Structures are given as C-alpha cells and as structure tokens.
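Table 4 source record.
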Amino acid sequence: MTFLRAFIFVREDANGIEPTLETIRNVLARQAVTVADIRTIPAHGAWPEEPGLSTTAREGDFAVSVGGDGTLLATVSAVRAKLPILGVNLGRLGFLTDLSPLSLETELAAILAGRHRSETRLLIQGGIGPDPGGWRTALNDIVLEKADGGRMIDIETRIDGRFVCIYRADGIIVSTPTGSTAYALSCGGPIVHPALEALILLPISPHNLSERPLVIASNAEIALRVPDRAAERCQVNWDGQESLRLAPGQTLRITRADQRVRLIHPADYDPIARLRDKLRWGRPDH
C-alpha cells in the first residue's frame, strides 16, 4: 500500500501529545505524505464526526490514531471503515495501538516505506428498529446493561430466532474477538484470537453461576429483550460511548456488519506476542 494522505486523530488530554504529534508530522513530511486533517477527540463527550471524507476514500488515504485504545475506537467511528488505521499508543495497555513514542520515528518511517502488515477486523452492528441501515456499528462490543444501581434485570436472549435463555444479570456483552480483551475480559470472558469469525455472549454478574460465556458463529443474529418495564432502567452502549435508553417491548438486534476495519501494523506484529507482553504472561513477577 502507498501512503499519500493522512487524517490524524489525537486525544486532547493524552500525555506527551505535542512532541508525539510533531514527530509524526516530521516523518510524514519526509515521506511526502500530506496531512489532510487533524481532529481532537474529547476526553469525555461525543466522538468526532466523519472528517470530510468522500463517499469513496482516495487511494493512499489512511488514518493515524494518537492516544489509547479508546482513541482508536473513536477513530473507527469517525472514518466509518473507509480508511485503514495506524495506532500510536499514548495510553496504558494499548491492545489496538502498536507504535510507541520511544520508537515512533523509526517504526513510522518503516511503515510508510512499505514494511508493514495489515489485517481486517470484524465489526458488529446493532439497533432497535428493523432496518439495519439505521443501526450503529462497534469494533469492540455492544452492551445492554442497567443504567442505574438497582436490582438485576432479566434479558430474554435468542440466537437466529431460537430461544437460548433468560439471563438474570446486570447486563450482557456481545463482543467481537477484538473486544475480547476489553470489557468482556474484565467480566471473565475468554480471549479470542482476532482472526476468528466468532462473537461472544457474556452475562455481566449473572445470578446463576452456571451461565457462562457463549462463543457463537459471527454470522448469527442475536436478539435481546428485557420483557417488562425494567427496560426503562436499561441502556445500550456501542464501544462504551454512544448510548441509547430502552423502552418496554423493544428488542435489540445485533449482527455482523458488512464492512470491516483495516488496521496497519509494524512488519513484526504478532497478536499472541502482544497478549504475552500486555498481560505479562510467564513473567516471574506476575
């Protein structure tokens, strides 16, 4: 892939943002890559809108996300899968963002020179209405959960129209393999390799301890409904940001999205090595 024009997304409160941004600009300039736009992602509040992209992005366009994994999720939302994304990590764990400020100049120059890997990641979409055209997409997860600190809720769950069970829990996470290292992991879900075509259903703090995470095919359709007025205490979150309050009788439907996100990595990228490093597997001090 030839890189010609960059859209840069930066987290407004990220530590070290100015020197990092200056390094990125300098490397891009040396490689004759134009900076088309720089968008600031607020620490709290709405994510940025699409940054003036045409219906079909130009050949050579790409996005640079500077921050943590949350910044990359905001970048995914803004570019709407039209551009490949390169992540620069100024956050903590950084499962999705590869480049470190310490080696940024060398690694970014190598990527722009063609020494890189790319992969596509599964997106999911979900909404209340019957028309998927109005649904929202997520890279990590879609979560139906109670919006207050009250008692547990009952969530009637169906897969491809077939009844599964009624979960009594604080909520339920529908996660992609990418999201298996995010909220789902903190709730006891399995780590799923990002190349797998799968979805994870994970109840949050279930009342029945036999209700375990369920891994299903990515082409399944999931339907979730809170069958009484408790729905008014519930909300749906897409990647932890966009949210919608439920009304009684509404059904949340979730499916695999048609589009996918393309991520750009250094040439030596290895998802298993990244897990080993980030989760400190096998370390004597773990």
